[in-house]
């Protein structure tokens, strides 16, 4: 028994037709008998061969045939005669020119068309991996991210400073901050699901409009309070209508800003850089992190400089002018991103976008849709392949003590440390974060995404452990222990920011585009919950003498993140191997998968048994 090979079929198609074939319905059988169906019934019980119901043009491929020797007359006698409209010529193999099989062993001579298969060199592979799919669109994305983030960071510094000038108590700032984090915890999954089912460019424009509008409302409320509110108690201030409007606008503004960040950092940059181009994606993520750090520093510096020269109301009006001017610029940049990327952002991620969006935007079902989005987001979040990497990111948010921030600043000031040293420490941490963005892309290029992530977590956990030991064994009021303590924390920012860049790329690779915003929003929501928990712990342990307890919790969370990620890396699943097959840790030699101009090029190594040369 055997199969009609591709070589024989090609030769038969090249042979001249037998007789007049008006309807061109051929079944070329080269002197062979059609195999009867496998059955226990006698041969005469088989149904007759009927071809009268076939369409005028029919082709039969992959027909199994019996290669046993038989005569032409016997082959025709086994079946009833066929209709003349669909003739089946009988061709003997000996009548077919060049019917010999195609040899695959190395000693056989081949045609020049099959002698060489072009394979990309290592340098060419590296060039493709480090070249973005849409470079011009990526540069437009950088411009949009820089401009939008600069205005956002300026406002993030402006409103707490204005409230601090308005009222000496920290309670108004704490209340606004609490509700902004609460809004992110509740609303991020809902907004993420809506973004996954809504066209990218209209959603981008709408979120920018919402963010600018809420920023203007917040600024108007603060300006109104500065002009009309006199000295009042804290309880009287927080119950004023202007303050309630400020809280609501601030919560919506923060939610819109985070949604824009998730869209650009988890979805847009992947489309523009390319998921199968790990070096290009790592470099793009590093650039976005550098821009974020620069905007955070420049935004605070600019508004601080304005406050030192002008009245707070004048500074807020200048900020409002920047917000108004930023909106048309951001809209134009969004259109340029789409145009420069050959309208890659217009691609739909789900087949039923319109119906789902209409259901999500139904005001009558807002509570039902919200609960459903949270439940669906949590289920999708738990089922993702790269869950340990995402959970490690959440664990890092528990580190609020051994990191530059309000708690660390309060500790150093309470210990009588010079403000110049505190400022130098904050600046050094920012510099380390900026350096980490350069190190992370180099690590990805050298050891791969997964090992780079593990290295970042291990470095951070080790250095924070050194800082904790120094805090418990020596007094940080002394110069040498203090410098070691601060240096260890500052250097740990190298590992923290490295994993921040690499962890983002792991999630970009492991999360499908149709769920990128939903899962990204869910991660932001859980991270906000972690920050709320640690904020509550800090409120409970409000005395500086309890800082050691908070430091232990911080180190434990970072060490737990490193242990979890290393366990996930050391015990990979088949799905994980397939997902990161291009990573050196799971590199598969028989197949190289590349993405070049939208085409997947797969190169397989084929081995054939043949006679060996002596």
UniProtKB/TrEMBL annotation:
Keywords: Ion transport, Membrane, Transmembrane, Transmembrane helix, Transport. GO terms for cellular component: membrane. It holds the Pfam family FPN1. It comes from the Eukaryota. The keyword Membrane applies. The keyword Ion transport applies. It is found in: Membrane. Its main location: membrane. May be involved in iron transport and iron homeostasis. Belongs to the ferroportin (FP) (TC 2.A.100) family. SLC40A subfamily. This is Solute carrier family 40 member.
């Amino acid at each position: 028994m055997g199969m009609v090979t591709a070589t024989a079929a090609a030769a038969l198609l090249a042979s001249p037709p037998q007789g007049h074939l008006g309807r061109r319905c051929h079944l070329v059988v080269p002197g062979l008998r059609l195999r009867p169906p496998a059955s226990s019934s006698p041969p005469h019980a088989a149904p007759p061969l009927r071809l009268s119901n076939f369409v005028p043009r029919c082709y039969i491929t992959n027909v199994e045939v019996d290669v046993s020797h038989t005569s032409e007359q016997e082959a025709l006698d086994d079946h009833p005669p066929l209709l003349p409209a669909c003739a089946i010529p009988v061709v003997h193999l000996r009548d077919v020119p060049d019917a010999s099989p195609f040899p695959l062993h190395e000693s056989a001579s081949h045609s020049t068309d099959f002698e060489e298969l072009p394979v990309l060199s290592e340098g060419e592979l590296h060039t493709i991996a480090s070249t973005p799919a849409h470079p011009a669109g990526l540069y437009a994305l950088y411009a949009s991210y820089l401009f939008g983030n600069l205005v956002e960071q300026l406002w993030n510094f402006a409103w707490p400073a204005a409230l601090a000038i308005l009222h000496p108590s920290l309670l108004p700032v704490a209340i606004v901050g609490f509700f902004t984090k609460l809004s992110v915890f509740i609303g991020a999954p809902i907004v993420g699901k809506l973004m996954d089912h809504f066209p990218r460019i209209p959603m981008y424009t709408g979120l920018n409009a919402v963010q600018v509008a809420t920023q203007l409302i917040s600024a108007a409320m603060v300006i109104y309070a500065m002009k009309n509110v006199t000295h009042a108690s804290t309880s009287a201030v927080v119950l004023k209508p202007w303050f309630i409007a400020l809280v609501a606008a601030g919560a919506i503004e923060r939610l819109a800003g985070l949604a824009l960040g998730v869209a650009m950092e988890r979805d847009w940059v992947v489309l523009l850089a390319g998921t199968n181009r790990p070096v290009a994606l790592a470099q793009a993520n590093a650039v976005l992190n550098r821009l974020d750090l620069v905007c955070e520093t420049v935004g605070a510096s600019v508004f601080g400089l304005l406050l030192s020269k002008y009245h707070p109301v004048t500074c807020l009006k200048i900020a409002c002018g920047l917000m108004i001017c930023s909106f048309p610029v951001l809209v134009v940049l969004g259109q340029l991103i789409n145009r420069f990327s050959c309208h890659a952002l217009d691609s739909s991620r789900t087949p039923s976008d319109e119906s789902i969006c209409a259901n999500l935007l139904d005001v009558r079902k807002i509570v039902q849709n919200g609960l459903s989005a949270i439940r669906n987001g949590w289920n999708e979040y738990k089922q993702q392949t790269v869950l340990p990497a995402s959970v490690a990111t959440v664990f890092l948010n528990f580190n609020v003590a051994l990191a530059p921030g309000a708690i660390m600043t309060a500790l150093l000031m309470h210990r009588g440390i010079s403000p110049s040293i505190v400022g130098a420490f904050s600046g050094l941490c920012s510099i380390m974060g900026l350096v980490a963005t350069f190190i992370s892309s180099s690590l990805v290029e050298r050891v791969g995404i997964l090992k780079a992530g593990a290295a970042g977590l291990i470095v951070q956990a080790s250095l924070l452990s050194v800082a904790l030991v120094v805090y418990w064994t020596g007094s940080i009021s002394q110069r040498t222990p203090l410098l070691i303590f601060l240096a260890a924390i500052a250097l740990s920012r190298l590992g923290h920011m490295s994993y921040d860049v690499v962890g983002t790329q792991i999630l970009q690779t492991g999360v499908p585009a149709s769920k990128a915003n939903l899962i990204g929003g869910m991660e932001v929501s859980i991270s906000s919950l972690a920050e709320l928990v640690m904020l509550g712990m800090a409120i409970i342990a409000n005395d500086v003498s309890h800082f050691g307890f908070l430091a232990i919790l911080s180190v434990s969370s970072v060490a737990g993140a490193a242990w979890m990620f290393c366990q996930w890396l050391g015990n990979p699943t088949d799905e994980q191997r397939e997902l990161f097959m291009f990573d050196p840790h799971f590199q598969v030699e028989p197949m190289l998968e590349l993405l070049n101009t939208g085409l997947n090029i797969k190169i397989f190594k084929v081995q054939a048994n043949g006679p060996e040369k002596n």
